[in-house]
Amino acid sequence: MAQKPGLRPTPDRVRETLFNWLGQDLSNWKCVDAFSGTGALGFEAASRGATSVIMNEQDAALVQQLQRLQQKLDARMVKVQRGDALSCLKTVAGQDLILLDPPFGQTELFEPALKAATAALNDDGFIYLEAPEAWAEERLLEMGLALHRYLKAGAVHAHLLKKQ
């Protein structure tokens, strides 16, 4: 995993629960990890058979680390790119899984990221949202999303969402 002081990786327990919810086999899935950070979620999706994983990260040093990991793992299905998460989400469509783990201190990113992810998702796809607080189901419904699964682990609120 990529590392940087202050970076908050998804806890192992949460990552394990997420992929248990999704199933062990993600064959032929198209995924976007919009706020890649350590890359743990995107690389996990790739290891479970996703055929396309876009790992988007804004921090140049983390992008370099992610690219080295991608080469070391020979993860050809992974594309590491540097850029703004919202711009990334606006350039993709038909995704099976969109992973959203914005910096907890930048709460202004959450709603725009969810809206952009909803537009990029296929009808049967999933959005994973990791947040510092639980999102009310009414608020999600206003964006056309339904809460499929939820877990609180420490300071992390993990939401698995689907289109209504």
UniProtKB/TrEMBL annotation:
InterPro entries: RNA_MeTrfase_RsmD, SAM-dependent_MTases_sf. It is an enzyme of class 2 (transferase). Its EC number is 2.1.1.171. Pfam families: Cons_hypoth95. GO terms for molecular function: 16S rRNA (guanine(966)-N(2))-methyltransferase activity. Transmembrane segments: none annotated. Keywords: Methyltransferase, Transferase. PANTHER family: METHYLTRANSFERASE. This is Ribosomal RNA small subunit methyltransferase D. It comes from bioreactor metagenome.
